[in-house]
């Protein structure tokens, strides 16, 4: 097994060109991105007025909640 920092910068001609990161860190970052994307979609829906009352939501979801 190799022991090194959890991320490594790969450079090309002295400029950063890529990062090599730990698998666990990458998966955690992907999970965080999915959560943030969901929050952004929700904020957009609110801004655009695409929301439902609690009763409307219950009615629309009733077929899945049986």
Question: Would you kindly provide a written description of the structure presented here, covering whatever features stand out?
Answer:
50% of the residues lie in helices and 20% in strands. A two-stranded antiparallel ribbon has the order 1-2. The longest helix has 25 residues, at 23-47. It is an alpha+beta fold. It has helices at residues 23-47, 54-61, and strands spanning 7-12, 15-21.
Low-confidence stretches: none
Major β-sheet strand ordering: 1-2
Mean pLDDT rating: 90
Question: Structural class of the helices, strands and pairings?
Answer: alpha+beta
Structural topology:
Blueprint: E1 7-12, E2 15-21, H1 23-47, H2 54-61
Antiparallel strand pairs: 1-2
Looking at this protein, list some descriptive labels.
alpha+beta; elongated; 50% helix; 2 strands; two-stranded antiparallel sheet; 66 residues; single chain
Question: How would you concisely characterize the structure shown here?
Answer:
The protein has 66 residues and is an alpha+beta fold. The chain contains 2 helices and 2 strands.
